[in-house]
Amino acid sequence: MNLSPWILASRPRTLPAAITPVLVGSGIASSVDAFAWLPAVVCGLFSVIIQIGTNFSNDYFDWKQGADTTERVGPTRAVASGLIRPDTMKWASFLTLGIAFLVGLSLVYWGGFWLIVVGILSVLSAVAYTARPFALGYRGLGDVFVIGFFGFVAVSFTTYVQAGYFPISVWPAGLAIGLLANNLLVINNYRDQETDLAAGKRTVIVRFGPGFGEGLILCSLLASGSFCLGLAFISNLWITLIALPALLPVYRVWRRLPHALRRSGFGGLLQKSASGLFLFGLLLTIGLFLS
Length: 291
Hints:
The protein is mostly helical. It has one domain (4-290): Farnesyl Diphosphate Synthase (Orthogonal Bundle). 71% of the residues lie in helices and 0% in strands. Helix 3 runs antiparallel to helix 4 and helix 4 (86-105) packs antiparallel against helix 6 (115-128). The model has no long low-confidence stretch (mean pLDDT 90).
């Protein structure tokens, strides 16, 4: 079996957005003397698997709805390019999301049965991101989804299953990570604005123009730095400010975005944005553990 198309469809560059909030949530748990490695590992597995399932689902439904064609600028998509059959991808996405739900189900042991609701909503949202009738990404709501689920929800519930409550620090930390994770989506939408417009995919870049996307990245840079300062202030965790220099790659992304080349340039910006997200989260986590 050739695994290359499946690795391609899993979109490895997006996986830092799944790993980073779990690291930060575990760091917050450590800062309140509640770190527990086993639920932290389970949260990490759940987050990575559901991210891959979301990517599989996006690959299928973007092809089905005409957003992924031979005209698109970005990386090759497995279904649109014929590397994976549509039905195979559809069932692979459902299977992967089902596995993610079963992995997440074990978190009930630490967090209670009400976490089943969170797991169901997470899986449904992964499909609803591109599948009709909801198609959040087609209605300009993708940014809200990413900031919410890959920021606040992932950070806060990783902390909750270890600490048993939501420390106030999950707010600034979760929002900072969510905003930086959303930069990956902004760059994708910036790159794909022409084909998205033709397919009726009304992302915020299609609605408001490329300048709005550049503004979003600048705002994420400033807001994440401010939230990092806020975290240090409200929790008296000044050592977490070691994360601030990691925002430099985000600044470079903002400077270079208007001048990106159609293929290699955007790939480099995605890599820098993902690196900035992961480095910021890693340093923030180290600071939280040291606290």
